[in-house]
Structures are given as C-alpha cells and as structure tokens.
User: Fold this.
Amino acid sequence: MATRDISKLLFTTVYPLYVQKAERKGRTREEVDSIICWLTGYTRDQLALHTCVNIDFQTFFDKAPGIHPNSSQIKGVVCGVRVEDISDPTTRKIRYLDKLIDELAKGKTLDKIYANDHQAGVGQFGSRPAPPLQSDPTLHGLPLFPLVPLPRLRTAPRCRRGR
Assistant:
C-alpha cells in the first residue's frame, strides 16, 4: 500500500477536524487558533483567511511568517512515529501541530502546554511579537477566492499503524 503524502492535504479540510477534536474535549476554536498562530507566526486574521482558501499544508507552512524558532524541540509520538525522527521538514511541522493539538485535546491548558514546551526549550506563548497584518489584497501572493461554505466533516482521520 502506497503511503500518502500528508503535505498535499488541504489545510482547509484538516482545520475543522482540529477544531472538532478540541471541541469534543470541551476546548474552543480560539485555543486551537492560538496554538496554530504560536507555531506558525500567522496572525488570527491571516489564519482566518487560510481557513477560507483552499491551501495545502506544504503551502501553508511555506508561506508562514515564521515557524517558532524552537519548535524543533517538540518531542513525542504522533500516529506511532516520533516527531523528532521525521526527516521531511513539512511533514515534521504538520506533526508538531498535531502533537500540540493532541495535548490540548488531552485536557492540558494553554498555559500548561506552553509551560511544558518552555521546559522542553520550545518557548512560551507570546514569546515573540505577532507579525503585522498585511494590507495586500492577496493572501501571501495567493488569490482570494469567493468565500464558499465548506462541508462539515463528521470525524477526525484516524492514524493508520502498520501491524
């Protein structure tokens, strides 16, 4: 069975699954947004635009204003694979995000997630200023399409582990 390149998944499709996972555990969309903004350097306005435009993870991370400088210190297992052992940079960033969302869904508060990351060398929430909102009518060079409601997905994708 061929492996799927997760960097080609649409961020627009996966973002609602992150939110659903968090909300099932009593967390909020704002907390998910805080984690994504912290990791990528996007402002909330920029993130809101990305959730409305079809953009894959590769482009989402390539166009990010700045991946947190110490994100490489995030450790742990996602889908049976250690994130620090992933060689593809985009896949590793996706798994960093997955790991942070998992910690949120496990019931940890944002303060505790960022405190644990600080202890691991990742830094604290708000440890860098947010990038300024760009007044460019395009999204980092990507054209803005008419906003169309996206279909609501029912369940989060399950990790497939070779057994």
